Structures are given as structure tokens and as C-alpha cells.
Amino acid sequence: MKINSTSSNPLLNGVSGTTRGESPSHANTGAATTSRSDVDLSPAARHLAALQDSAADVQTTRVQQIRDALASGDLRIDPSRIADGLLASVRDLLK
After folding, report:
1. CA separation for the pair 36, 52 (Å, rounded)
2. Taking the chain, what is the end-to-end CA distance rounded to the nearest angstrom?
3. How many Å apart are CA 70 and CA 83, to the nearest integer?
4. CA 42, CA 86: separation in Å to the nearest integer?
């Protein structure tokens, strides 16, 4: 599988590589090809790909609620809750 800057995945833009069994000098000729099924993705890579494909990345109603709370001065920030959330995220990533 050739990875180049024309990839639809923004995480891979600007990355170039060669296909299996292809020497770097023949990387851009397209002489050897592999199918997507020949590539084994790690669980983390599959998770990132699923996140990229999600259509509802931004909850506009929640964003508006936070904007309104900021404007009115009613937003309360709980640093311990933020820290707990960050630690939980890191634990999930390390699994």
C-alpha cells in the first residue's frame, strides 16, 4: 500500500512510503500494489479511524449552552473533574 500526500486521511497527509516488497527507488512507479486487506491496523488505529469517520463531532447545542454560561458568568469550572476525565482518557488509551 502506498501512502502519500493524496491520502484522504488527514493524519497521513505528507507521509510517503513504499509497498511491501517494493524498493524505495521504485516507490513512485506503482509497480507493486497491495490491497487494503493486506494491512493490519492496531486497535488504536482502528479507534482513530472510527473517530475520524464520525459525523457528529461537534454537539452544537452543548457548545451554545457553554457560550451562554460563559456570557452570563454562570460557568463553574471544577479542576478535579477535569483532571479525573483526563486520567480516565489516558487509562483508556493505555489499555
Report:
1. 18
2. 28
3. 21
4. 22
Split at pLDDT 50, 70, 90, the class of 82 is very high
In three state form, how does the secondary structure of the chain look?
CCCCCCCCCCCCCCCCCCCCCCCHHHCCCCCCCCCHHHCCCCHHHHHHHHHHHCCCCCCHHHHHHHHHHHHHCCCCCCHHHHHHHHHHHHHHHHC
More confident residue, 56 or 58: 58
48 vs 10 pLDDT, higher one: 48
Predicted TM-score (pTM) above 0.70: no
List, in order, residues 6 or more apart from 69 with CB less than 8 Å away.
Answer: 75
What is the Cα–Cα distance from 89 to 91, expressed in whole angstroms? 5
